[in-house]
Amino acid sequence: MSSKIENVDMFSSLPEEILSHILSLMPTKYAVRTSILSKRWRYSWMFVTNFDFDGTRTNPFHGLDRFTKFVDRVLNDCKTSKINLFRLQFYETCVQKLSASSWIDKAVRLNVCELDIRSIQLELPLSLFTCKTLTKLRLERWACDGKDWGCPSSVNLPCLKTLDVVVHSDPFVNAFKLIGGCPMLESLSLEVTRRKKFAGCYIFNIPTLKRLKLTFALVITSDINKVVLRVPNLEYLFLGGVLCSLFQMEDVSSLVEVSVSLRHIAYDYLWVELLNGVSGVKSLLTQDVSFFLIGFNVG
Amino acid sequence: MSYSKTIVLTNYDGETFVVDEVVAVEPQTIEHMIEDGCANTSIPLPNVTSKILSKVIEHCKKHVETPNSNEKAAKADLKSFDFDFVKADQGTLFDLILAMNYLNIKELLDLIYQTVADMIKGKTPEEEEEMRRVNAWVFSCFVGVTCLYFKSKKM
């Protein structure tokens, strides 16, 4: 009897808005696939509010046009007036620069709230940097050439609360430009994947910031740079990768929790300075650093 | 001051369920009814069958009873309970969605939506093959195009 019940298709009789909500919870590829189930399902996918395009698994030989055509067509046919989430990831072999830029532009015009872009080649439309509806942004370029995506000098993202950026060498090229244009920023994650040369002094002067994650993944220099934290509302601080910066805590009066997961510490005194700076916090969690501290008196 | 600690729910079949108020206010719809003073005798829930209502009450009870702590064990227990809870046939899930929408329990609704989404995504290979056959623009793969090309050549 139970198998009989399972064979009856009940989902088709769900109200349209529930159905589109459910279809928003899966990669767009699957949502669009349902269009051929029956007449009932033909247009349901067009009302999804989340778009999740993953071109990284597309075969470069015959996926060159297929992925592009698919995304083009989906964005052209969709009837959504407000995009909740737009996620896009692909390799450069699959997609032309201009296509990706026009897709992001379309998402911005459809009042996107959350944008998540990961690719090798990335050219971002100017409209993205003045998007009024954006609350969450993640940008990552998997660069083989060490170059970064470009950021215009004027950025205005009035609603952006969460920013997650990966840059390759110099955060001043775009990360700090972006941060400067976000008056509501509450959560920032900045990852610098390869720091080749001395990269100056990073000053985080963000009064609204509550969470900060800083990661230096790979440092190809013995130069030390300075990181100044002027973040009176910061509650949570995470440091990862390589410790190669001298931290100067100018204002971290609200800091409660510090989490450290370091692979390597360039000089012992950096660690001492860091611990001195966060001595007032309630919770300090350290991972992977303990072995550096053997025979090393902190305090 | 008399203050009733239990709430009576009457469902679609006319059956009554007596539940603690803390459990009953989990669904926002019922909470609002109690706030508005509509819950003096019993709350009618004409859209919900007894099978579904008892399932919903079971879920609310579990979530109310589990201490709201960061303890890993409690969280894992709740997770496994939720996992078992949504292991149901399409018919039950369908009724649950409608009931949840009416009762307005967001947490449970999200869980059920995700379950249904995973079910739709995880169609059997035969069904996917059928989809591929019918809808060329979605699945227009290299092989398909080549086949068409050779077919047209033969003709």
UniProtKB/TrEMBL annotation, chain A:
Q: Which Gene3D superfamilies match?
A: 1.20.1280.50, Ribonuclease Inhibitor
InterPro entries xrefs: F-box-like_dom_sf (IPR036047), F-box_AtFBL13-like (IPR053781), F-box_dom (IPR001810), FBL13/AtMIF1-like (IPR050232), LRR_dom_sf (IPR032675), LRR_FXL15/At3g58940/PEG3-like (IPR055411)
Mind telling me which Pfam families this protein's record contains? F-box, LRR_At5g56370
Sequence ranges assigned to domain F-box in this UniProt record: 8-42
| Source organism of this protein record | Helianthus annuus (Common sunflower)
Starting at the broadest rank, the lineage of the source organism is:
Eukaryota, Viridiplantae, Streptophyta, Embryophyta, Tracheophyta
| Name by which UniProt lists this protein | Putative F-box domain, Leucine-rich repeat domain, L domain-like protein
TrEMBL record, chain B:
Please describe what this protein does. Answer: Involved in ubiquitination and subsequent proteasomal degradation of target proteins. Together with CUL1, RBX1 and a F-box protein, it forms a SCF E3 ubiquitin ligase complex. The functional specificity of this complex depends on the type of F-box protein. In the SCF complex, it serves as an adapter that links the F-box protein to CUL1.
Q: List each copy of the SKP1 component dimerisation domain by range.
A: 106-127
Keyword Kinase set for record: yes
Q: Which SMART domains match?
A: Skp1 (SM00512)
Subunit details: Part of a SCF (SKP1-cullin-F-box) protein ligase complex.
Name of the protein in question: SKP1-like protein
Q: Which InterPro entries match?
A: SKP1 (IPR016897), SKP1-like (IPR001232), SKP1-like_dim_sf (IPR036296), SKP1/BTB/POZ_sf (IPR011333), Skp1_comp_dimer (IPR016072), Skp1_comp_POZ (IPR016073)
Q: Where is the signal peptide?
A: none
> From which organism does this entry originate?
Helianthus annuus (Common sunflower)
Q: Where is the SKP1 component POZ domain?
A: 5-64
* CDD domains for the chain: BTB_POZ_SKP1
Pathway(s) per entry: Protein modification; protein ubiquitination
One GO term of the cellular component aspect? cytoplasm
Keyword Acetylation: yes or no? no
In its UniProt record, a GO molecular function of this protein is:
kinase activity
Q: Which GO terms describe its biological process?
A: jasmonic acid mediated signaling pathway; protein ubiquitination; SCF-dependent proteasomal ubiquitin-dependent protein catabolic process
- Write the record's keywords in alphabetical order, separated by commas: Kinase, Transferase, Ubl conjugation pathway
Q: What family is reported?
A: Belongs to the SKP1 family.
